[in-house]
Structures are given as C-alpha cells and as structure tokens.
Amino acid sequence: MIGPALLLEHITCRFASRERQGERYTAIQDATLQVGSGEFVCVVGPTGCGKSTLLNVAAGLLQPSAGNVQALGEPLAGINRRAGYMFQAESLMPWRNAVDNVLAGLQFAGVERGEAQRRAREWLARVGLAGFEQRYPHELSGGMRKRVALAQILILDPRLLLMDEPFSALDVQTRQLMENELLDLWSADRKSVLFITHDLEEAIALSDRVIMLSAGPASHPIGEFVIDLPRPRDVNEIRLTTRFVELHGEMWHKMKNEVLKGYARSRQN
Amino acid sequence: MPGAGKISSQAGTRRASPRISRARRALYHALLLGGLLLFWYAMTEPGLIPPFYFDDPTRAKFFFGQPLAVLHRIWSWFYGGGIYLHLGVTLLETLLAFAFGTVLGLALGLWLALSPTASMLADPYLKAMNAMPRVILAPIFAVWFGLGITSKVVFGITLVFFVVFFNVYQGVKEVSPVVLANARMLGASGGQLLRYVYLPSATSWVFSSLHTSIGLAFVGAVVGEYLGSAKGVGYLIHQAEGVFDIDTVLAGILVLTVFALILDFVVTQIETRLLVWRPRMTETEML
Fold it and tell me: Under an 8 A CB cutoff, do A61 and B201 touch?
C-alpha cells in the first residue's frame, strides 16, 4: 500500500486582493482531508466557500500558502500527474473534433498517432458517443461535451479523479444520466474520486463519504458523513430510500446554518 | 468575437430583401451597371448630345474617358498579353508582403503575448508605429530598397504586420484559462502548450483578419508601384496618368478591382475550409 490517493494537510490559501492593495483574502484556513484508494469522496459547501480552490491545490495548479499536499504517499511538486481534472466550465479545445480532443493527453505523452486514435475511438464509444468522432465541440450538446471531457481524462487512466461541479451546467435529466454513467465507469476500476458540488443530493447519491466545508472566507471542513448506502446505486431510485432521506435531513440541518452564515456575510459587504 | 460583424450583415441582407429571388437580384445589378455605362457613354461620346458644360465636344472624353475605349484597352491588354507581366508582379508583391507580414506578426504577437517583460518594453513603440501614417514610408523604402519589388514588399509588410500582430496578441490573451489548465492537466509541456493551444487559438484570429491583411498587402503593392517602379499595374496607371491617358487609367483601376475581388473570393474559400470548427450563429446546436 502506498498511502492514500490524496492527502491535504493543514492547507491554507490566501490571496492578495486585486482591488485594494495590501488587503488579503483567506479562502481556505487549515483544511485537512484525505481521499483513500478507491474511495469516492464528495466535498459540499455553500457557494463561495473555496471548494474549487481546494481542488486546484489537489491538482497542483495552485500552490497553497501553507500546508502539505501528498499524492499517492509522495509530496506533490507541480502538476499532479496521476490526477484527472474535470472542470466546471467548457474545457475542450474548440478547434479539435471529438476524437482529437480525447487523444490530446496521449499526444502530449508522445503516443503514436494511429494508436492514439484507436484508443480515443474506443473511449468515445465507452462514453456513448460512437458515431460522433468527427464532431466539433460546438456541434455537440452540453451533456455530450461533458462525456468527451470525461473520455479525455479517463483515457490517461488517472489514479485520482478531481471533479469540480462537472454536471452543474446540465439540465436535471441529463445530469442524472451522467451521474449514473459516472458511477458505472467508476465501479469498473474504482479510481479514487474527489467530487465537488453544492448539491447535497448529488453528493449523497454518488459518494462513500461527504466532507462539509464551512462558509467562506477562511473555510475549513466542519463535518464528515459516511454514506453507508449499498452499491451499485441508481441515483434516481436511491433518493427515495429512507436511509437517503435520513442522511439528507441530518446534513441539511448542519449545512443550513452555514448557508445562512454565508448569506448574512454577503449582505454585510 | 471575430467574424461577428459578418454574420450580422448577412442576417441583415436576408431580412432586408426576403422576397427578391437570387436571379432577380442579379438582373437588377446588371441593369444598374448597364444604366451607368450607358450614362457614361452618352455623356462622353462627342456630338451625341449638345454640349452644355464644355465648349469643345471632345473635352468630356478627355477628362472622363469612354467605356468602349476602356473595354478595348482591357481586351488588348489580355489579348495582346501585355498585362500578364504587370499583374504577375503585383500578385507576387502582394503574396510576399502577405506571407512575411503574417509570419512576422504571428511570431512577434506570440512572443510578446507570452512574455510580460518584452511586451512591457515594446508596448509604447508598437503603439506609436501603429499610429503613424505608414503610407509616408513608401518613398523612404523606395530610396532604401530601390525601385524593384523589394521596396513594395517591405512596404506591404509594414501594413500587414500590425493587423496580424494585434490579432494574434489579442488571440493569445483570450485563450480560455480553463482550456489552458485542462491542457496542462493532460500533461502538456510548455512547448506543447504553445504548439497545440496558443498557436491554434492565435491562428484562428489570424484567419479572422485575413481579409483585411490580404487587402492591405494589395494596397501596399499598388501604392508602392504607383510611387516609383518599372513594373506592375500601379506602374501602368502611373505611366498612363503621365500622358493624360484617362482610358488606360480607368482600365487599370478596373483590372485591379476585379483582381481584388478574386483575391477576396479565394480568401473566403480558404477561410471556410480551415475554420470549420468555429460555431456559426445561424447554426442550431446539434442534439
């Protein structure tokens, strides 16, 4: 065993204010969390609590002001090479068609073009996009673009998936479809997942463990809930079980206070 | 958003004339042209209408030329083959100015956009050079580079360079930070980011300025020839002007216009082929 897939210890992120000189904004204060091997962890928190900042630290895109980041038991320097990052916003290269987008990672790694294309087609088929290989991103629907983005990441077989509200821009039906597909793909080889969302239901339906962040600024984990729902799950059906409703009530109670705190603070400013 | 202006103008024509068919529109255009030519002919043919402005009936012809004489001049140019050398020279100058100007603009645009220090140093000078009326440089280039094609190409480059440079600079600055972060997460090295993210993004901006820059290269060639040369369509026009041969001047202008339209058409063809990935506003999203 080589230690947890991801370990964040006492992470603090402070930014210099762009508008006012000398002023500091602390997004995250002393956050510690861990994602075990093969574990699906969700981070929830009210809007503006620095969830994305935490993910960027895990990805190595952002250097924390203080604290210690470990990936697979080794201290992280630079980009986290064993992680795949699924962004909230559009991340595909608009000038490349679906296949060329999916094979980008292989191309960067120097894989021979024919081989890369073969594997990219395979992955497009696996996310249900066979026949859409030659389409450009603007010719695909929002849900399809997310599938391409997912294939683009999974083709590199990362040990850790970092997901930043990946489905928040989708309509409810497409979103539930994508959630189920994500669970299917995940159960195939159980990658570790750190999934960020502001949606409690989504967090409970998907994960093994939910970490709750306090309202920002200076947000930090304030609670941890183990989701003991059986797998395999169907995100539509599981919402109706009593255990789900119980967990949801418990977490919502805790989250409500944080949401109200964040709301009060934003009204003051 | 590059290309947005074109889209709205297309939508505009569609809205303005929804009922006139294509054939009918072509007929109207032809009628308008025919009417203008007829008017020109009537006003300049000696003795056709009683003189009302010039005392001498041949004076109008002297100042404004005659449509038949102009057409005859064009026909004899192409039939006799005298025009091809001059057209070839103008085309060569245009293409060279366009190619060098684009490559220089692309390279410098990428470099300055990616290096804050270089851009900080160069910024005021580039702004000044862009603000300068560069047509005034043409005589200087003629002195420096002689009356051959070099001076015209260099002059054309100074016109093309800035259009491409500013477009590339803008293009690099506006690369989506998410697309960039995504490429980095997928393992792209610095060089690969340049080649696979910055360059394609910047090229799309270059293509959106293609019409302007090829047009400017053409202007550079013709103006350069006009100011001093021994070959080229601009030279032909200048020569004819020297001997008050208005027919030849007008014939030269007509040839240049048609030539510019052909260049523009070719550019449009290249553009539609290379920018297939760019969404068009009129297109609905595929499901």
Answer: no
Residues from B contacting A (CB-CB < 8 Å) are 176, 178-179, 181-189, 192, 196-197, 200-201, 204, 276-279, 283, 285-287
Which residue in B86, B128, B120 sits closest to B252, CA to CA? B86
Size of interface A-B (CB pairs under 8 A): 82
CA distance B231 to B124: 37
Q: Can you list the positions of beta strands (E) in chain A?
A: 6-16, 24-35, 40-44, 66-71, 74-75, 83-86, 160-164, 192-197, 209-213, 221-226
Q: Strand A66-71 and strand A74-75: pairing?
A: antiparallel
Secondary structure letter of residue B280 according to DSSP: P
- The residue among A62, A95, A100, A157 with the most chain B CBs within 10 A of its CB, best to mutate, is A95
B104/chain A closest Cα distance in angstroms: 23
Closest alpha carbon within chain B to A162: B185
Say if residues A49 and A214 touch (Cβ distance below 8 Å).
yes
pLDDT at A156: 93
Distance between CA atoms of residues B167 and B171, nearest Å: 6
What pLDDT is recorded for position B1? 36
| Pair type for strands A40-44 and A66-71 | unpaired
Parse chain A into domains and list their residue ranges.
1-82+160-167+197-269
**DSSP per position, A119-171:** HHHHHHHHTT-TT-TT--GGGS-HHHHHHHHHHHHHTT--SEEEEESTTTTS-
The dihedral through the CA atoms of B175, B176, B178, B182 has a sign that is negative
Tokens of A70: 């470990």
Nearest chain B Cα to A58, which residue? B185
Q: Check if the beta carbon of residue B155 is closer than 8 Å to that of residue B223.
A: yes
Q: Chain B closest CA to A231's CA: distance in Å?
A: 30
- Tell me what the mean pLDDT of segment B11-31 comes to: 72
- Comparing alpha-carbon positions, the chain B residue that sits nearest to A93 is B179
Average pLDDT, chain B: 84
Q: Give the right CATH number for A1-82+160-167+197-269 from 3.40.640.10, 3.30.470.20, 3.40.50.300, 3.90.230.10.
A: 3.40.50.300
Spans of chain A below 50 pLDDT: 1
Q: Which residue from A61, A108, A135 is facing B186, i.e. has the nearest CB?
A: A108
Kindly indicate whether the ipTM for this predicted assembly is greater than 0.90, answering yes or no: no
Chain A: residue whose CA lies nearest to B193: A108
Answer yes or no: are the C-beta atoms of A70 and A6 closer than 8 Å: yes
